[in-house]
């Protein structure tokens, strides 16, 4: 099955309502915490050029957005969702790959992070180089944690002073950290070794 996966633009605002509905359905189905996002909330992410959309023809198939915190010290990947009939085809992984690339291109200094209760998302994250960390390794930006307010487990998060909740936190390196990890071998020497 062929999907078109790309950075969403103003033209994709027409999908915001449907995406918002998918979160509601998913929270009901899973009976677990998943933050809700209104169409207005999503439209802001579209306009900021921080959303990835997947379509099958003209039909919405999946979605994800990135958000920047702590003066561009952190970028979250949030709201990954695939319409039920398109699940199990590798679509979430393909969407997330593009979100990671977008985050590293736009915010090269930012560490990438996400929190999730989904074992599928944990697997996708691990495949993309994320590692599990404690919550204290994440942003302390209020903006991020207030996003959890619509989650059924928010009380647990607050009770634990934002240091623990039911989600697993995962962190990946910034573009700059990856760049600095490359061995510093002069070009001539590198050619010799190739
Ligand atoms: C979680 C979700 C986004 C996954 O979407 P998807 O397109 O079906 O996922 P993919 O097909 O890309 O699967 C990614 C990997 O997980 C594996 N996987 C998929 N479904 C799985 C399942 N139910 N159990 C175990 N592994 C599974 C796949 O085999 C794949 O691994 P591979 O790359 O080694 O083959 C989708 O189920 C969804 O929208 N769920 C509701 C919303 C949600 O929970 N979002 C996450 C909030 S943090």
Write a structural description:
This protein has 194 residues and is of the alpha+beta class. It has one domain (4-180): Gcn5-related N-acetyltransferase (GNAT) (Aminopeptidase, 3-Layer(aba) Sandwich), CATH 3.40.630. The protein is 38% helix and 23% strand. The protein contains eight helices and seven strands. It has a seven-stranded mixed beta sheet, with helices on both faces. Strand 4 (74-82), helix 3 (91-106) and strand 5 (111-116) form a beta-alpha-beta unit. The longest helix has 16 residues, at 91-106. The radius of gyration is 18 Å and the shape is globular. The protein binds coenzyme A (COA). Coenzyme A is lined by residues 26, 34, 80-82, 87-93, 116, 118, 120-121, 123-124.
- How many strands in all? 7
Q: What is the name of the CATH class?
A: Alpha Beta
Integer average pLDDT: 91
Q: What is the architecture at the second tier of CATH?
A: 3-Layer(aba) Sandwich
Provide the CATH topology: Aminopeptidase
**Assembly form of the protein:** single chain
| Backbone shape | globular
Widest sheet: strand order?
A: 1-2-3-4-5-7-6
Beta-strand portion reads 15-25%
Number of helical elements? 8
Q: Which key terms come to mind for this protein?
A:
194 residues; alpha+beta; Aminopeptidase; 7-stranded mixed β-sheet; 7 strands; 23% strand; binds coenzyme A
């Amino acid at each position: 099955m062929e999907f078109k996966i790309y950075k969403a633009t103003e033209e994709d605002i027409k999908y915001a309502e449907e995406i918002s509905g998918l979160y509601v359905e998913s929270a009901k189905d899973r009976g677990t915490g998943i933050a809700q996002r209104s169409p207005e909330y999503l439209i802001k992410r579209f306009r900021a050029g921080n959303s990835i959309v997947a379509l099958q023809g003209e039909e919405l198939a999946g979605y994800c957005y990135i958000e920047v915190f702590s003066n561009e010290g952190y970028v979250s990947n949030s709201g990954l969702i695939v319409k039920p009939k398109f699940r199990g085809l590798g679509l979430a992984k393909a969407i997330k790959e593009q979100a990671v690339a977008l985050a590293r291109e736009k915010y090269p200094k930012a560490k990438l992070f996400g929190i999730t209760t989904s074992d599928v998302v944990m697997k996708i994250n691990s495949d993309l180089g994320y590692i599990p960390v404690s919550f204290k390794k994440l942003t302390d930006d209020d903006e991020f944690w207030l996003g959890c307010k619509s989650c059924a487990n928010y009380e647990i998060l607050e009770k634990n002073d934002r240091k623990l909740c039911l989600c697993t936190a995962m962190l990946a390196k910034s573009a700059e950290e990856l760049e600095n990890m490359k061995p510093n071998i002069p070009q001539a020497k590198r050619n010799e070794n190739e």
